[in-house]
Protein 1
Amino acid sequence: MIWLTDKDRQLLAEIEGEISREIMLENWKAFMKYTPLPSGSVQEKKAVQFLKSKLKEYGLTPDVLHFEAYISNPKYAKLVILRPYEQEVQCTPYRQVGTTGTEGVEGDVIYIPPEEVGTAECRDKIILVDQQTSGDWMGLRKDLLLKLQEMDVKALIVIEQDSFKPTVVHQRADFSVSGNPTSDNVHLIQRIPAIIHVSNKEGALLRKLAKQGGMRAQITSIVETGWKTLPLLVAEIKGAKDPDRFLLVNGHIDTPPFSPGVTDNASGDVAVLELARILNKHREKLGRSIRFAFWTGHEIGRYAGSTWYNDAFWHELRYRCVGFYNIDSPGAEGATTFRAAPIGEVQEAAVDSIKAATGIEVNSFRWPTRAGDSSFWGTGLPHASVTSSRPKELYDPFVNYSGGGWWWHTPYATMNHGDIDILATDVRVELNYIFRMTNCPVLPMNFVAYADHMVKVLEDLQAKADKVKAFFNLYPVIQRAKEFRDMAEKLEKAVRQSIEKGVSDEVLEELNSCLMWVSRHINPVSHSNAGVTEQMTMDTFGTEPFPRIQEILKLAEMTLHSSPEFEFLRTKLLRQRNVVEDGFYQANEVIRVTLAKV
């Protein structure tokens, strides 16, 4: 339930009126002078100092932390067709570990269609492939790339799938491990010497050429990989009533390689500055604290900054943080609507904030993704981001995100693709959400719709794996999830009754503690496939609910239930099912105990 006092609603209206287009535009233009700013660069350090000076000007006490990050910085790529004729083709290097060195690699080029990638013979060849592999719009990633590496492929030429804007190339990454690799997962980072990207238009010509046979090319791809010390800027506004609990509000500083990043994420950093400026003026009237963080290592460090922060401050995040709010890509030209709101316990708060600030009613919902430094699922934090979006006719369906602007991750992401009026609207929405999270006496978390969606997801997953239900099924998890849905309804009812009765601070504290711990139990099993202190893998990009048990579909695809491979996977799934079931069990117990008290 979302409940603000009349006094707080009047305060929120006053705060909204303090949003300054003039100040934001000045900061936006000033920040753009430092871009592009890849992590580890002098430009990035200057940008951090600029943001720090602004926070100090606005009355905060910012601090610059430093951490070690394993980053891969693409510097240069060149593609020359040698046969049947000589021609250079424009390209960009992937954000990946492999590098050819200045000497490059030379070889015969063959085209492999999406359904044959990873099975067609390609040893010692340069292969031309489509970014969109069979059944996966995000394209070539961990498993396929590792398989191609094992097959001794020389290099990859990847054809950009963007037919919406066929003459651009969006800078892409290989999506392997999340954050800094460890001794347990560093082997999951593929090291193919060169992966380069060509536009959809030029890729079509190369595809035709390769299919004719006899094609040969030389590729140079320079990527610098290693450990670097990066800065990370933080600042906090202490709440007046419950200062120990805080909302984490953040955005990334670094821009994609070769891109000025006007809305990815210069605009987001400007928005965070404006939020800090306004909210700090009213700090004595804020209930809970707000902690601002500006991540580095986002683009070329696989979310190195946010994952390191989760590692370094795990305990206080786990026990004191009420939620994670990411600001990435606001203020995009033409972004006059809002895309689907995130499914979760803060779904109602996000939808209510959008409507209060803009009058727009969001009626579509999406499972949150791994993008945008969502590095806190294992820790159990509620995640939210409510950035504006371009309407369908202007939305490039092949980008992720810049409001759906075609300029995402390209050199064309310049100031003319930012809109100060839209940025002001985004900040108004963000203020509404943040204020609800800090000043609602009972945290605005409602698990009912979240639980209902999870039951449907689990039932659908089970239906798709009906073939193997006699050998392995999700029935125990589904039963716990249905119980959770019932318990969530009872908890929401108790919250409403408590608010209507005007209960004591002690009861409010019981309810808030309950809501936080339900999140801690539910979010890690519904979104992560790692332990509570670990990072989930990036290969699903966070789009798969319950990643621990998704392989039930793989089990159902196996021909023989008596094979060793079937038994190995079934054993793994049984253990993972236990983890998921226990998450629901623990959440149900927390609610049960709380209801008995209040």
Protein 2
Amino acid sequence: MRTENIESAVQRNRDELFRFGTALIFIVGIMLFTIVRTDGGVDGTLLVVAAMIGGYMAMNIGANDVANNVGPAVGSQAITLTGAIIIAAIFEAGGALIAGGDVVGTIKSGIIDPDLVADRDTFIWLMIAALLAAAVWLNFATAIGAPVSTTHSIVGGVLGAGIAAAGWNIANWFVVGQIAASWVISPVLGGLIAAGFLYIIKRTITYQRDVLGAANRMVPILVAIMAWAFATYLMLKGVKKIVAVSFPVAVLIGIVVAAGVYVIIRPHIARMTTKLENHKSSVNELFTIPLIFAAALLSFAHGANDVANAVGPLAGINEAIVAGGISTKAGIPLWVMAVGAIGISLGLALYGPKLIRTVGSEITELDKMRAFCIAMAAAITVIIASQLGLPVSSTHIAVGGVFGVGFLREYIKSNYARMLDEIRDHHAENDPEAVEKFLAEFEEADVTAKGDMLRRMKAQAAEDRLLAKQERRALGRVHRVELVKRNLLLRIAAAWIITVPLAAVLAAMFFYMIRGMLLP
């Protein structure tokens, strides 16, 4: 036993050393590449340092944020961990390089006013401090298994470094307030939408007597809705970086795509159901392919958008050095975009599995139907929020969706256990065989028939057989089911709340350190 423990510890250390060594080679490669591109001097050194920190930030985005896109698919066993990493790496890099955009605001969300920054050098120090602070916080959050928003991390970094550079007046506090509101808006919207879709699936498919017949009718419709959501989502969040697409046009394109998917998927679902047993667990197999596509499309859209968190500030630094001035927007050179794309993919492959497991299986148990609902919530919430002007985080939406389906399952299971207890209490003096017969019929009935059976039973109940109020409360406590890990809920919520202020404090500290080292 002791030998096995030693061997296990050695293997873990070996794996950790390999991951660290590979990450270090990537950072050194960025350093050497940037040195070749610069003319030396202080500016060249600053660009080399900024590029290395940008690569470090990109790896941390891959390790932390990408898990939200593929975690549910892995947790539901729709795809293996290795397959998810390969798909996400390809589509994250593709989204960053193809649709990452020619222009990205380096001052995220107007968080500070760059006109109040004293000079070019101060701006460069500010951006380096912001990048480093966000990367360090993401690294720590990944180590403790907390999925946090990379956008909020870099916003906090820019805010803190900006205040350190130019005082409190540089901050746009209205935007800061919007970001604080998103801590509630994002997970609540994601959780409600995911829970709503899961409830629809249960009512229309798994709670029906003929499960496969219901699946034949509903699954093609659900997949078509998903196709609409992702087509619209990609038009608004990905393709618009290449071609400007208005919201009505994006919705229309989504409808056309959904109609095409419905025509294709309906006969496929019909063929699959002929090979399955008429049981609700069989329906999970119908959602495998949609989940794989969802993981790929979410990764593409994430790469197109969140690569700016890693290389937006780096692009701003590059622009300031090349152009000799401060710019609120900066064109991203291909080499800078490649640093972000490769870094995200590498970070996912090396350090992503930990957060993938956290999101996919540790918060609550996921099957393919539940993972499908979370993917739907991720796309639809972003569409709704973007049109209402609500600030949302894709990380918070996805994790909120996981909690949403978990809490819905808790409610349903507790409620069902309470129903069974009411049935047994009502038949307490009857023949036990009659009670078991009623329970068997209740178990086999669809959701509508169950409701009718309960209503008839309660209508026949004598007043003296009703449970007292105190007994009903006790019964509720007895049958309370916990399918969501509360300790993870508290840990993740705490990490979300402190992301912006902690990143801001770190960035301010790093700014003062950098300025102290570089001032003559």
Protein 3
Amino acid sequence: MHTNPYTKDNARQGALHYLMGRGAAGIAGFLTVILLVRFMDVQNYAAYTALSGLVALCGVLSALGMERVISRYVPEGRLYRTTNELGRFVWITSAIRFIAGLLVTLVLYLLWPAIDRFLVVSDFKFFSIALACFIVAEVMFQHFSSVLQALVMQKKLTQLLIIQWAGRLVLIAVFVFMNALISWENALWVFAIPEVIGVVCFIVVIKRHLHSLSNPVQSEATKAHWPNWGNVTDVGMHNYGFTLLAAPPQGYFMKLLTSAYLSAEVVAAYGFFISIAEKARQYIPLHFFYGLLEPIMVASYLKDRDFSALSQRCQLLYKSNLLLMVPAIAWVAVAGDPIVGLMTGGKFQGLSWILLLVMVQLTIGSHVVLLQLILNSLEKSKLLISASLVALPIMLIAMAMAVTLSPVWLLGAPVIFSLAMNLYIVLQLAVTQYSYQPSLKMLGGVTISGLIAFSMIEILSFAIPFEGTQLVIAIVGLIGVITIYGVLIWLTKSINQSEIELVKNILFNIRRSKASA
């Protein structure tokens, strides 16, 4: 029979590889962002920001909900179906994704004159081959990453991520050596070339893994044709519809929108802050382990159908998110300009409020990610579309008001969308048998502690004026926020022992799970 890769013990082993590989890749990714902003002038960086948003949007348009399809059906195929069936499913979905990527790139090429006029931050004139390669490579790289995550092949995945980011650093070094400044087209090649190599490696790794699997002994109930493509299409289209409707508040869409309405400096700053915030967010447990945890949590729910356990685990993961994001937000609020100045070499001074806004939006939006996991587990993904149809008009009204009054306030529209999404889904679940009620007692303490820490530091800064270099101000602000925040968390007892044990059980369970009968 197939061995079960979704046991807690295997998750623990995968988590170790995940930690090492993702950690190294994350550091390389952070360095890539910093080096690009330092070795590109503001105009080229603004152009690169617009095009990177366009690449991400093309990836979304060609996704067809495939990420959620992979995470839902690959674990089922891995456990209960033959290797041929699993392989057929993987390669059919891969072919669909590849064709979709090519079609989206072709449409982009045909529409390029109009798009070039829309992106006023730069006069591109021609459709770059680097852009086409980046789009297709990114589409397939993300697809195969989802496949490896669903197969719990974290060791191989993280090795490929290291190769990807190391390749980018090497190319940046080459371009810097050849020329002091990097152009927007060079920046696209920095991302495209390693991803093309990565896609080839993915194909080889997946083919070898499928070849190594044995077939399970099938009962009469499991001999029916698999998968039911009607159900697959439903899951894919529901999630695809949600993704399209949720596109306006996402960073890639906002990059494009700001490129049409705002100055090059604000566009470049927003693109940089989005990149930095997303890199930092990847290190908090909710997002750092999400690719590892999603298939395991789905498989656990499918086995036990225990919604209360699923709900509690999701809330604890979100609490772990807040424990790190809240003090980070407070730190940026206290010492934003010195922090930005250190990272950019003096660029974007006075615009650190944009970074603060981005971090708040990403924190609120993280809860929607968990709600999506819950709805997919319950096979109620249609509710994602309903929520988007409610939240999107609210956001569009806010955007129209911003364009009329002050275009810079377009940057606040994603926060409004995320708040509306959260509220609608929670209220809809509340009227079903799967009532999801976020615990204010569980989540409120960590949030209020951050607000108090920020307020106390601000009061102290007015009462005791402090001057120093950017580095000193940033360090003093960080120490002050962490100290006050930590003391408040301890005094309010916002974290209890049972929560700590459950998080350990979810993320780093060291007990051997018994083999299923």
